[in-house]
Amino acid sequence: PMTVEASDLPTCLLCVCLTGSVYCEEVSPDMTTVPALPKETAYLYARFNKIQKIGNKDFADILTLKRIDLTGNIISEIEDGAFSKLSLLEELSLAENRLVKLPMLPAKLTTFNANFNRLKTKGVKANAFKKLSKLSNLYLSDNQLEAVPHIPENVRTLHLQNNNISDVSVDTFCRSNDTYYLRPRLTEIRLDGNPVVLSKNPDTFTCLNVLPVGQYRR
Ligand SMILES: *[C@@H]1O[C@H](CO)[C@@H](O)[C@H](O)[C@H]1NC(C)=O
Ligand SMILES: *[C@@H]1O[C@H](CO)[C@@H](O)[C@H](O)[C@H]1NC(C)=O
């Protein structure tokens, strides 16, 4: 018997398309690639499918995207330019996938979620988030990171719990060359479930209003 592949069917028969939004959640038959999107799609919800890979062409023609949610797929590879041209993209979730490294991220992101992946330090460049001046929520919990990347100025919520971070320093959040520097926006930092002992260097958190959650005694 012939099997029906999801990629053979027009997206809006498999998924629910409403003005500007496409909902493709737990699609049956299994959806293994990003579906072709209607022009001017702004919101794509493609959670809990079997998407394996994101290519540079998948979103190349849909520059109207503001939110992409790919939570709970089996994505292990993303081509470096897959999201970089999406200049309106504000929210991107890649949570609960199999990523070991991150692609380039577009400049207007406010929320980025890559919780529950397999991210390694060498797959998340120290400056991966540096240019994201609007970034407010950064979720990187439950990965295999051994270092804290550069955290841009406007971040409010930072989740790094359940990684393998063994060290933080004055320059992780504050500035060793500027004792007047303050970072009042950053009010939620999760570092619990990491080997780092946060009381090691008392100057590490002097620019913050709130101490990170984590281990203070060995
Ligand atoms: C955690 O990091 C240490 C080095 O700091 C390394 O030796 C160890 O293998 C890492 N553990 C895991 C589970 O990756
Ligand atoms: C502190 O060092 C950073 C680079 O590490 C530099 O951009 C900044 O201008 C320096 N600030 C002061 C007050 O020297």
List keywords for this structure.
218 residues; mainly beta; nine-stranded mixed sheet; elongated; binds 2-acetamido-2-deoxy-beta-D-glucopyranose
Structure report:
With 218 residues, this protein is mainly β. The chain has a single domain, classed as Ribonuclease Inhibitor (Leucine-rich repeat, LRR (right-handed beta-alpha superhelix)), CATH 3.80.10. 4% of the residues lie in helices and 14% in strands. It contains two helices and eleven strands, in the order H-E-E-E-E-E-E-E-E-E-E-H-E. The strands form two sheets. Strands 1-2-3-5-7-8-9-10-11 form a nine-stranded mixed β-sheet. It has a two-stranded parallel ribbon with strand order 4-6. Helix 2 (170-173) links the parallel strand 10 and strand 11 (188-190). The longest helix is centred in the first third of the chain and has 4 residues, at 11-14. The N and C termini lie far apart (62 Å). The chain binds 2-acetamido-2-deoxy-beta-D-glucopyranose (NAG) (2 copies). Residues 1-24 form the signal peptide. Its main location: secreted. It holds the Pfam family LRR_8. InterPro entries: Leu-rich_rpt (IPR001611), Leu-rich_rpt_typical-subtyp (IPR003591), LRR_dom_sf (IPR032675), Mimecan/Epiphycan/Opticin (IPR043547). GO terms for molecular function: growth factor activity.
